[in-house]
Automatic annotation (TrEMBL):
Keyword Nucleotide-binding: yes
Lineage start: Bacteria, Bacillati, Bacillota, Bacilli, Bacillales
InterPro entries documented for this protein: AAA+_ATPase, AAA_lid_NorR, Homeodomain-like_sf, HTH_Fis, P-loop_NTPase, PAS, PAS-like_dom_sf, Sigma_54_int
Domain (Sigma-54 factor interaction) ranges: 272-502
GO BP, sorted A to Z: regulation of DNA-templated transcription
Gene Ontology molecular-function annotations: ATP binding; sequence-specific DNA binding
CDD domains: AAA (cd00009)
Protein name: Sigma 54-interacting transcriptional regulator
Signal sequence interval, chain numbering: none
């Protein structure tokens, strides 16, 4: 085994030498000798003057005579000093971790084996103290570093010894567990925590675990923790000496996940544009719904702004700082709905992730859960959802512990749920639970006065995105927009205006609108001619758009959210386009 060489400076050496002199005054006085210390590279380190009893690191006396004495062996030599005096010199290597970095050189008038023996003991003692001092400093520094790291982290750290006694708890840990680290240290975990059995289990099995979740009862509250445990084994005898526990509050983990996944509501009521009096009433009702914590059911046609209103309600409610979790019940594969909503524990089914997974309900803790297209939810899931709403708890698939969740539900559908109930597709009891506050957004065809404001909003949005001046919407085009029935509501208008803005230069006229909306082709020969021209231009545009979508999809590895983001359109707009161009 190679010994690691301890690096030690002359300054450190002198300070250790100094403390030996001070602490062993009698012995040093008895020796009554001047002492030199040299480094193995023949450099002078320090000198102890027996008369003044001081150590000096200034080479006041020439010591060239000492050079031949510096070697790894203890020796006694009869030499002539620089001043011409003949004397014996004892040379004793000072071993520091088996390396003789320093040498104790002691001139003396007569040769005494016993004295040489005592000096070698002194040299060994110096070596021992230097190592000891350095090790103590290293250990101190290491534990200081470790403590500083543990205190600076946002996670809770706790250590127990092999007897199950708490040996360390950091400040964050103390706060999470509602325990004073100073008072708790030294106590057995069974006196401190109600989940101590899992902690002791690590000491019995010697096996740690990662990211398990726990519920613990504290005097003031019940909290859910995510915890990992690392057993500590003594390298020398392979004995288990304790365990470290690292933990976080689940709430913090959820917030973190939420921030990464982007579970935030973006829209506010100010983003909702309208003029129509029915809409004024609707928004007032939605605003008062925001002040309550009751479930809301929004039943409206597709594209009317249900999600926008759900986000605005959340942002206007006392839950505005909590997560806003959207679940699109129509897009989750049937057999994945349960795990998406409620999560699962490790080993719940083949292919289940190690350590299990959160469900969307858990992620919504403290916030709002938006169940979009609730009418598409499979019947068997409806009863599970009802249970969750009633009990306000979620049990992960394969688990047996219900987790209390604080959430508010806003559900939306473009189906007529009462009809679905009559047809046996929707549970009446779930409908009652969801329909505490009922909201319905009027379809766009019933609020023509909203068309100009919305059309201009979308023209501006597209032009800004393209870095252009927004084109002017002509009365002719506006009149066409008002005549159309808008089955796809505001979303359809948004797409039409986006397309028109891209096709037009300074003004948007009828010719920039899709054939089924535009009146141009029915008016004059001249217009028909223009229509034909524009028809070709539109076809050109569609070709370009088609290719653009295909290329972007390829770039985004067929990830639709990413593709929609790159193209600067909503996911649903992308789906519409995929359908339109029959892109699989
Ligand atoms: N009054 C409005 N003011 C501004 N934008 C609106 C308004 N209504 C709808 N929108 C916009 O229309 C688009 C469709 O809205 P949203 O997705 O909320 O509709 P939806 O009713 O949830 O649709 P679906 O039923 O298909 O899920 C969004 O881009 C939204 O911002």
């Amino acid at each position: 085994m190679t010994t690691k060489k301890l690096s030690i400076s002359s300054e450190d050496f002198i300070s250790t030498f100094q403390s030996i002199i001070e602490n062993n005054e009698d012995m040093i006085e008895n020796l009554n000798l001047d002492m030199y210390v040299f480094h193995s590279d023949n450099n002078f380190v320090c000198y102890y003057d027996k008369d003044t009893r001081l150590i000096s690191d200034e080479q006041t006396k020439s010591a060239a005579w000492v050079n031949p004495l510096i070697n790894n062996k203890a020796s006694i030599d009869h030499i002539v000093t620089d001043s011409g005096v003949k004397q014996f010199v004892y040379s004793c290597p000072i071993f520091i971790d088996q390396h003789s970095d320093f040498h104790l050189i002691v001139p003396c008038h007569k040769k005494e084996d016993e004295l040489h023996f005592s000096l070698q003991i002194l040299a060994d003692y110096i070596g021992y103290l230097v190592v000891n001092q350095r090790t103590k400093e290293d250990i101190f520094l290491k534990s200081e570093y470790q403590e500083k790291i543990c205190e600076a982290t946002s996670e809770g750290y706790l250590t127990i010894n092999k007897y199950g006694e708490l040996t360390y708890l950091n400040r964050v840990g103390g706060k999470i567990l509602d325990v004073d680290p100073k008072k708790a240290t030294g106590k057995h975990v069974s006196e401190l925590f109600d989940y101590y059995e899992q902690m002791i289990e690590v000491l019995h099995t010697g096996k740690g675990w990662e990211n398990r979740d726990f519920f613990i009862s504290r005097p003031s509250r019940r909290i859910q923790l995510v915890k990992s445990s690392i057993p500590i084994v003594d390298d020398d005898n392979q004995e288990l000496v304790g365990s470290i526990f690292i933990f976080r509050e689940m709430k913090v983990v959820r917030d973190m996940v939420g921030n990464i996944v982007g579970n935030k509501a973006r829209f506010d009521f100010a983003d909702f544009k309208y003029k129509n009096s029915e809409m004024v009433e609707f928004v007032e009702l939605a605003k008062s719904a925001a002040k309550t914590d009751s479930s809301v059911l929004i039943e409206s046609e597709s594209g009317t702004g249900k999600e926008l209103i759900a986000q605005a309600i959340h942002n206007h409610s006392h839950r505005c700082n909590g997560p806003f979790i959207t679940i699109d019940c129509s897009s989750i594969p049937r057999d994945l709905v349960e795990s998406e909503l409620f999560g699962y524990v490790e080993g719940a089914f083949t292919g289940a992730r190690k350590n299990g997974r959160f469900g969307k309900f858990e992620l919504a803790h403290g916030g709002t859960i938006f169940l979009d297209e609730i009418g598409e939810m499979p019947l068997e899931m409806q009863s599970k959802l009802l249970r969750v709403i009633q009990s306000r708890t979620v049990t992960r698939i394969g688990g047996n512990k219900p987790t209390p969740i604080n959430f508010r539900i806003i559900a939306a559908t473009n189906r007529n749920l009462e009809e679905e109930i009559d047809n046996g597709n929707f549970r009446l009891d779930l409908f009652y639970r969801l329909n505490v506050i009922h909201l319905s957004i009027p379809p766009l065809r019933n609020r023509l006065e909203d068309i100009p404001i919305l059309a201009n909003l979308f023209i501006e949005k597209t032009a800004t995105r393209e870095g252009r001046v927004p084109p002017l919407l002509t009365d002719e085009a506006l009149s066409d927009l008002k005549k159309y029935s808008w089955p796809g509501n505001v979303r359809e208008l948004e797409n039409v205006m986006e397309r028109a803005t891209l096709l037009a230069e300074d003004i948007i006229t009828s010719i920039h609108l899709p054939k089924h909306i535009s009146s141009t082709h029915t008016i004059t020969n001249n217009s028909t001619c223009i229509q034909n021209e524009i028809g070709e231009t539109s076809m050109e545009w569609e070709k370009v758009e088609h290719q653009l979508i295909v290329d972007t999809l390829e770039k985004a590895n067929n990830n639709k959210s990413k593709t929609a983001k790159i193209l600067g359109i909503s996911r649903s707009a992308l789906y519409d386009k995929l359908k339109k161009y029959q892109i699989k």
